Amino acid sequence: MSAESWLSRLFSRRQAPVMLSELARDRALSVLAKNGYQAHYYTPDQDADDQELAAALRLLGRSGFIITDQRGDLVGQVALAQSGSESRARQKRAQFRVIE
User: Fold this and answer.
1) What digits encode the pLDDT tens for the residues 6-49?
2) Nearest by Cα to 39 from 30, 48, 47
3) Residues 53, 59, 62, 65: what is their CA dihedral angle, to the nearest 10 degrees?
4) What share of the chain is helix, strand, coil (3-state, %, to 5)?
5) Secondary structure, 3-state, 35-83
6) How many other CB atoms are there within 10 angstroms of residue 67's CB atom?
7) How far apart are CA 23 and CA 83, in angstroms?
8) CA–CA dist 21, 27 (Å, integer)
């Protein structure tokens, strides 16, 4: 069985991630903060140079998988989720890289 058909079958059985409105997300983050919790974003493809690997990491990461390397270390990065557009802009600027 090819990897593509295996992934296709696997994800046809999994529930798709819920797309949140900005308002719903901000409200949920406020409720978490009020109760002493924090939410985090997981970006497993952050350090991947190989485009095929990056696509596979994104697909699995967005589907709820936590990905580890050969040593059992977490692949990618975890960032604190914050409400508001300035917070998101700061996170995007931190991820910006110049490609030569």
Assistant:
1) 555 555 554 555 667 888 888 888 899 899 999 888 889 888 89
2) 30
3) -70
4) 45, 10, 45
5) CCCCCEEEECCCCCCCHHHHHHHHHHHHCCCCCECCCCCECCEEEECCC
6) 14
7) 9
8) 10
